[in-house]
Design a protein that fits this description.
The protein is mainly alpha-helical and 385 residues long. It has 15 helices and 10 strands. The termini are far apart.
């Protein structure tokens, strides 16, 4: 159902489209024949209408909804139902499991947030839990188990960020890491070149670890003096190769000169390995070959060992993505729009996570305004004689 303003601009109407018969019903008055003069009047009657006429089982509990939702997710391999069950068991089942979903509201999520804060859970984790509950309730609405999501207006907790929360290496620090690889791994069973290529590729693309592990040589397309890397898959937490990226649709990276040179060197290097194949993984398992991706923990261990050796702050592998954004914004001066396109994120996400990298561009904007501001505008602020 939806509420719209009437064609004549006065009052509101309700439009209901039956999902089974496809029949459209337009409601312009309440049961007393009075028109909906205000939008809130139409919204209130909309709820009454749904409760009265929609064939909904009003006794569905949160436990029952969760099982149906997990069953729905099981056909989407990129979702970890094992992790979801753990989350539900640890945080949701006890306070909400036996409750009817029609009774769960914004106040319940607010109470849950307060309780989790008292137990010292991070704000990010708390917001993720509440978002999961809202998603499940939206699923219930779309599958005729619930008339309306009464928790839809819950606002996530706000987190005050500090500039040191995004951990990364500056370009000179990353160079230290790369230069030290031959010495650190001189006696390793792993060829130092493999390690160098893996870390440099992560830095020069900003790929997430799961996306980089999932790349195959067939994902690289050459076009004249350049090329495109298509990122359409990732290796999930259950070590499965799945379609799509962790946070949504795929995207493409047009290779710059340095990245293109790196990829060509990598191709020459790996093609000399026994079992190399065109449809094999770009970064294969060190023990199983090109039909299997490199293990998820191995790059993490390399990062820890190299940080320790060089006396650098320990960062996660995802920290290379942060480092790349630092390089693009602080050193190359790319705008937030260009950075967002390059790493396959939205402008909003880039500003939320990397706002401190764009301070100089903000200063530059202020200086441009100062340089170009008309004297007549400035004179408006002068005191009268």
């Amino acid at each position: 159902m939806a509420v719209y303003k009437n064609e004549n601009g006065r009052g509101y109407r309700i439009v209901y489209r039956n999902p089974k018969t496809k029949k459209v019903t337009t409601i312009r008055t309440n049961d007393s024949g009075e028109p909906f003069l205000l939008k809130k009047d139409a919204k209130e009657f909309e709820l009454i209408y749904l409760n009265k006429y929609k064939n909904i089982n009003r006794n569905v509990t949160m436990d029952e909804l969760f099982e149906k939702y997990v069953e729905y997710l099981s056909v989407q391999p990129s979702n970890s139902t094992k992790k979801l069950r753990s989350w539900y068991r640890n945080h949701i089942k006890k306070p909400l499991g036996k409750r009817k979903i029609s009774t769960i509201s914004t106040s319940d999520l607010e109470k849950l947030s307060r309780e989790m804060l008292e137990k010292n859970y991070s704000i990010n984790y708390i917001n993720k839990n509440c978002a999961n509950i809202k998603t499940m309730l939206n699923y219930a609405v779309s599958h005729d188990m619930l008339v309306r999501n009464n928790a839809a207006n819950f606002k996530p907790l706000k987190k005050i960020k500090s500039s040191n929360e995004v951990r990364y290496w500056e370009p000179y620090q990353f160079k230290m890491v790369i230069d030290s690889i031959p010495e650190v791994y001189s006696k390793s069973h792993t060829d130092p070149l493999y390690i160098k290529y893996f870390l440099m590729f992560g830095y020069l693309t900003g790929c997430r670890k799961g996306e980089q592990r999932a790349l195959k040589w067939t994902d690289i397309e050459y076009q004249g003096n350049t090329g495109i890397i298509h990122i359409n898959h990732h290796i999930n937490e259950e070590n499965k190769y799945v379609y799509g990226r962790k946070n949504g649709n795929g995207y493409s990276i047009y290779m710059d000169e340095a990245l293109l040179k790196l990829v060509k060197e990598m191709r020459s290097y790996f093609s000399g390995f026994e079992g190399f194949k065109r449809n094999g993984y770009i970064f294969p398992s060190l023990s199983k070959g090109f039909d299997y991706p490199i293990g998820g923990h191995t790059p993490v261990r390399w990062m820890e060992e190299l940080a320790e050796y060089n006396g650098l702050p320990h960062i996660t592998y995802h920290g290379l993505r942060h480092s790349y954004v630092c390089y693009l914004s602080s050193k190359l001066g790319l705008t937030v729009y260009e950075v967002a396109d390059r790493i396959g994120d939205t402008v909003a996400v880039v500003l939320e996570h990397y706002y401190q990298f764009f301070n100089q561009s903000r200063i530059d904007v202020a200086n441009k305004i100062t340089d170009k501001t008309d004297e007549n505008i400035i004179s408006l602020f002068d005191d009268d004689d």
